[in-house]
């Protein structure tokens, strides 16, 4: 019997930080173009661009530190494997502006990039196996807001804000975005290319 490498754990893997650093969200549009990378070591997306553009514009949602979490649950049924993805985060302060932003997320087909503290960019709501780009099979793998809960808190030191959950069902594991992300520090949008 010959043994070859499977998945090796390195010192870098053991030192990687958990948690989410940034959450980027955008609405799918007809004509969006996605470039996929499939190799023995990469299950990635190298580019996401708007119709006729060279970049895509995203909204950056800020949150309370050390609260966001991304969970991916794979299940196999009747020969098909699906991945349920759930991203939850808390936006402090139940303000009118945050309520308006949440209202825009309702009933919208979206894609999400969760930027991990480990430097990885996890993409939700984008699938190559059953593509969601124009003229492809409409497969409902888009991300959507699956829940939002506002709470004022009862005590002075309780949290006041919105807890938002984004979710999607995909037919492949979430891909890692390997393109560039330029975050604007003084604006509410972000671009990728």
Helix content range: under 10%
What's the number of extended β-strand segments? 13
Strand content: over 45%
Low-confidence stretches: none
H-E string: HEEEEEEHEEEEEEE
Structural class: mainly beta
> How confident is the prediction overall: mean pLDDT?
83
Number of helices: 2
Outline: globular
Features:
single chain; 193 residues; mainly beta; 9-stranded mixed sheet; 4-stranded antiparallel sheet; 2 helices
Give an overview in words.
- The chain has helices at 11-15, 96-105, and strands at 20-27, 33-38, 43-49, 56-61, 69-77, 80-92, 110-116, 121-124, 144-151, 161-170, 175-177, 181-183, 189-192.
- It is globular.
- A hairpin with a 5-residue loop joins strand 12 and strand 13.
- The mean pLDDT is 83.
- The protein contains 2 helices and 13 strands.
- The protein is mostly beta strands and 193 residues long.
Q: Can you lay out the helices and strands and say which pair or pack?
A:
Layout: H1 11-15, E1 20-27, E2 33-38, E3 43-49, E4 56-61, E5 69-77, E6 80-92, H2 96-105, E7 110-116, E8 121-124, E9 144-151, E10 161-170, E11 175-177, E12 181-183, E13 189-192
Parallel strand pairs: 3-11
Antiparallel strand pairs: 1-4, 1-7, 2-3, 4-13, 5-6, 6-10, 7-8, 8-11, 9-10, 12-13
Q: What is the gist of this entry?
A:
By secondary structure, the chain is mainly beta. It has helices at residues 11-15, 96-105; strands at 20-27, 33-38, 43-49, 56-61, 69-77, 80-92, 110-116, 121-124, 144-151, 161-170, 175-177, 181-183, 189-192.
């Amino acid at each position: 019997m010959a043994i070859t490498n499977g998945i090796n754990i390195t010192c870098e893997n053991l030192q990687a930080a958990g948690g989410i650093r940034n959450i980027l969200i955008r609405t799918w549009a007809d004509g969006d173009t996605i470039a996929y990378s499939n190799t023995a070591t990469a299950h990635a997306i190298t580019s996401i661009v708007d119709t006729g553009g060279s970049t895509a514009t995203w909204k950056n949602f800020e949150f309370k530190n050390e609260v966001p979490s991304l969970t991916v649950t794979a299940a196999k049924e009747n020969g098909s494997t699906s991945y349920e993805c759930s991203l939850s985060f808390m936006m402090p302060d139940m303000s009118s502006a945050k309520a308006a932003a949440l209202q825009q997320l309702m009933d919208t087909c979206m894609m999400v990039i969760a930027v991990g503290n480990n430097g990885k960019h996890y993409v939700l709501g984008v699938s190559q196996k059953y593509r969601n780009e124009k003229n492809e099979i409409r497969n409902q793998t888009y991300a959507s807001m699956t829940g939002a809960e506002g709470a004022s808190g009862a005590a002075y030191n309780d949290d006041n804000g919105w807890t938002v959950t984004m979710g999607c069902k995909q037919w492949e594991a979430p891909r890692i975005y390997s393109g560039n992300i330029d975050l604007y520090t003084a604006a509410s949008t972000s671009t990728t290319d």
